Amino acid sequence: MKVNLREQIFENIKIRDTSLVGGNFVGCNLNESEFDNVDISGMNLNQAQLLNCKWMKIKIHELNRLDGHTNCVNSVCFSPDGTTLASGSDDNSIRLWDVKTGQQKAKLDGHSASVTSVNFSPDGSTLASGSDDKSIRLWDVKTGQQKAQLDGHTKTVYSVCFSPDGTNLASGSDKSIRLWDAKTGQQKAKLKGHSTSVSSINFSPDGTTLASGSYDNSIRLWDVKTGQQKAELDGHSDYVRSVNFSPDGTTLASGSDDKSIRLWDVKTGQQKAKFDGHSNWVKSVQFSTDGLTLASGSDDNSIRLWDVKTGQQKAKLDGHSTSVSSINFSPDGTTLASGSYDNSIRLWDVKTGQQNANLDGHSNSVNSVCFSPDGTTLASGSLDNSIRLWDVKTGQQKAKLDGHSETVYSVNFSPDGTTLASGSEDNSIRFWDVKTGQQKAKLDGHSNWVKSVQFSTDGLTLASGSSDKSIHLWDVKTGQQLAKLDGHTDQVKSVQFCPDGTILASGSSDKSIRFWDIKTEQQLAKLDGHTNEVNSVCFSPDGILLVSGSQDKSIRIWDAKTGQQKAKLYGYKMIVYSVYFSPDGTTLASGSNDKSIRLWDVKTGKQFAKLDGHSNCFNSVCFSPDGTTVASGSDDSSIRLWDIRTVKEIQPKYIFQNEIISQFTISNQNPSIRNKANIDRTILRICQNPILEVKGALILKGQFVNYLGVDLQQLFQTKGSFILESQIAQQNKQY
């Protein structure tokens, strides 16, 4: 249930057994509330009052993310009792995690190169690891000490696996599989047959058969006792990355660089089924403990759950920002762990995986945002190749526009709001019917990426700027090219019409801004001053001023009539990606690589607010038509809407915490408390991965416990909430 209930009073409310994922509760009074078994993932509780609350068995998706590795996570594995998760990474380390709390229990150092595979012994006392340093190591799980180092392989050890009885360890590497005595560390056998590296190995549940997958595109089955090859399974057309036996041992699953998953009959060696759905390499496959579900992780950044019997996809789990390299079910089958090249490990609730799959949002950087003329809809273009339309009031996704085959760099509404234009890395411009979501036209002509598109004020002409260094003018009605404006010596990153439609401004990687006469198609002026690429240009609503943002870390304001620089705005220490005037022309919004939006007084050139909240750089900012809201798109894959009516002069980061506490002791109904705590002014966050927001929330004598019994007050505090009971007690001591 995604709801928008800002600034409401919900004292003594009782909610049980439901989901409030993505709910907007900014500034709400939730004093004395009771939440029991509620999913609050992605709720916005900024500046809410949470006094004397009882929130039990709370679920928050983001707690199921384990961060600590400083490079790609290659392998994850649950301990047999399900309490510990091991992970191996390109940072050369192995880490052990407490599954219940998400806390790191130990860091095992010893490998001198990437750790490619980790596997627990059946009794959970030993962990085996394989590495790019060509060695296998055995670790005492209790002490974290290395017990043994097994040498013999001449290349990367891609996979290690204990036999079900724990007596043997198998390893896959340099065209060979080796069997080791797990107790002594001595090599017992070397199995040859593959013509190139062995990427994955897995014992059958009874321990008599070993399966191996290889970069030679084949799967082989081996008799563990004799070391002889029993069968060769052919069918994949590219590298086999992962193999896994079903719990009953009758079926083998395989994942491949040919993007497919295949199921094989172990007895006959025949292919039983082929699952298609992933759009990139399948890096990892594993059966659930009951054998009814198969999970797969892929280079397309997703995890998918499949019904083994029907072959139908049951769920798609999105959240990782890059390749999913390893997946592993917990012993009880309720949780799935995933490791990714985004350096994170995530834990997924298998039962509610379907719900996770339905979360709206871009799966990659948001490059462009634009309000419809009536302010009710927001369009966004992304690195995930899609365009999405959003209901500004609720944050609900209204439509997903697919068609571009590469990154969407720019989106812009026609003046009447009926058509959306988009520019893409696929070199095309597309027109979309906003009402139906259908593509109306595709304009081809640019020979490189289209970085910026904009409609003229009368809606008859579209301008486009491209990495091919040119600007094109198009007839919106016919889709025909009207003109080609040449002059820039590097890619054109931004184009904008002046309000009367007679002049077009363009910003380029050649460090210049140029003015073009639309009627004559001639260059009118060249504005020099920036010392690096010009990323964004925008006319003031009256057409008197032009503002520009650049990779030289500056914002400049120009006289649109004379071309003279009127002001240079200082404050940024990083690249400025986007600039935009408010509808009344008094305020300028800018977005930067420093993850902040800044608001500037156009008349004085002074910065009067800094809006923080995104976790990565800004690519695009824009004002709503009524000037009350700023929308921002970021590399953190999210879109945020900010209410700028509440923006005051910037306060220090600690927000006068003692003042808040002293005011609270006088009256917990004082509305100025919330205003003083107005740190994060985000009113809506649209994101595929829900993040709880509780900046400025006031907490006193509450119980905030998740479904694992972990107290969440520390989490709330790290997110900017004020835990008043400890602060007041400390203050009372001083008196």
UniProtKB/TrEMBL annotation:
Task: List, alphabetically, the Pfam families matched.
Answer: Beta-prop_EML_2, Beta-prop_WDR3_1st, Pentapeptide, WD40
Ranges for domain EML-like second beta-propeller:
127-273
Span of the secretion signal?
none
- GO cellular-component terms in the record? transferase complex
Q: Does the keyword Repeat apply?
A: yes
Do the record's keywords include Oxidoreductase? no
From the UniProt record, list the WD repeat ranges. 66-107, 108-149, 150-190, 191-232, 233-274, 275-316, 317-358, 359-400, 401-442, 443-484, 485-526, 527-568, 569-610, 611-652
What protein is this chain from? EML-like second beta-propeller domain-containing protein
Protein's organism: Paramecium tetraurelia
Query: Do you know which PANTHER family this protein is assigned to?
Result: WD REPEAT DOMAIN 5B (PTHR22847:SF637), WD40 REPEAT PROTEIN (PTHR22847)
**Keywords, sorted A to Z:** Repeat, WD repeat
The taxonomic lineage of its organism, from the top, reads:
Eukaryota, Sar, Alveolata, Ciliophora, Intramacronucleata
Do you know which Gene3D superfamilies this protein is assigned to? Answer: E3 ubiquitin-protein ligase SopA, YVTN repeat-like/Quinoprotein amine dehydrogenase
